[in-house]
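dumping this here so i dont lose it again. seq + smiles for zinc ion
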Amino acid sequence: MGATHRLLGASAALAWAAWVPLHPAQTAVALVVATVTSAGPTSPDVDRTGPWQLLDRLLPDELLGHRGPLQHRGLSHWWGLPALALLVAAALPAQVAWLAHAAVLGWCSHLLGDLLFGQADPRGGRGPGIPLLPWWGHVGLGLDVDGPLERVVVQRLALPALLAWQTLDALGLAGPLWQRLGQTATVAFHR
Ligand SMILES: [Zn+2]
């Protein structure tokens, strides 16, 4: 799922950069930042790292109910944290706020991925997806992580194709290419 998360983060960064729009150099930096916060220990999956899991074992966070905030796909996967980060970022000067926004975007792209993919944990009593409330009330489509849809369709086909198109678009090449394809199709049709 890590590669899917990173591709999703990169795609979200390019879409956002085109929408703002960001300067090309800023786009490149935003792409890196969002990719970093979209997967691995610098993403909501920080709850899968050794130090976090050690903390989970040491602290009796389960006493807070619903298997505790430190469980996997618990508090670190709650949408409220990036929402809070956005509020804090609103106080930053514009010169650095865009960097914070890129980081939050990558983080949120991870949440979106987990909202779609990630089955329930019936043994632990956790639902599929991500928590609607701080660490309980999970919602999600519960699609199979590492299943053919995630591994082949999304990770190997859909997201790489989307990213290729977005890269062409960012370089200003998508429009001319589209026009060229249209012309070729018209000529072929009239033959
Ligand atoms: Zn996750």
